């Protein structure tokens, strides 16, 4: 189970590919977001969903800080999934 800015998914590689292809409507398609810069992995679906709800309540600056701490260069992490 993975938690990304896209939400919760069982197949992060597929979800990132769908967003890069523009298949999924929403924020990422509207603003052309194509780079995976952050994700968290979970073994438990409910735990991933709790984290998603928690982070949706966070201010944008808090989310940016989490990304800066784990990926300060804002590198595309998609290739790390293979």
Topology of helices and strands:
Elements (H helix, E strand, L loop, with lengths): L1 E3 L2 E3 L2 H10 L5 H5 L7 E3 L3 H12 L3 H11 L12
Given the C-alpha coordinates, what overall shape results? globular
How many alpha or pi helices?
4
What is the helix content?
A: 40-55%
Radius of gyration: 12 Å
Oligomerization state: single chain
The poorly predicted ranges are none
User: What's the number of structural domains?
Assistant: 1
How does the major sheet shape up? 3 strands, antiparallel
Question: Could you tell me the number of beta strands?
Answer: 3
H/E element sequence: EEHHEHH
Can you describe this structure in just a few lines?
The chain has 82 residues and is mainly α. The protein has one domain. It has helices at residues 12-21, 27-31, 45-56, 60-70, and strands at residues 2-4, 7-9, 39-41.
Overview of this protein structure:
- With 82 residues, the protein is mainly alpha-helical.
- It has one domain.
- It has helices at residues 12-21, 27-31, 45-56, 60-70; strands spanning 2-4, 7-9, 39-41.
- Strands 2-1-3 form a three-stranded antiparallel beta sheet, with helices on one face.
- It is globular and about 30 Å long.
- The two termini are 15 Å apart.
Keywords:
4 helices, mainly alpha, 82 residues, globular, three-stranded antiparallel β-sheet
């Amino acid at each position: 189970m993975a938690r990304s800015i896209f939400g919760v998914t069982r197949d992060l590689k597929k979800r990132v590919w769908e967003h890069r292809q523009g298949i999924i409507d929403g924020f990422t398609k509207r603003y052309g977001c194509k780079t995976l810069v952050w994700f968290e992995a979970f073994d438990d679906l409910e735990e991933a969903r709790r984290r998603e709800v928690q982070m949706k309540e966070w201010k944008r600056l808090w989310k940016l800080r989490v990304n800066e701490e784990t990926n300060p260069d804002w590198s595309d992490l998609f290739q790390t999934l293979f």
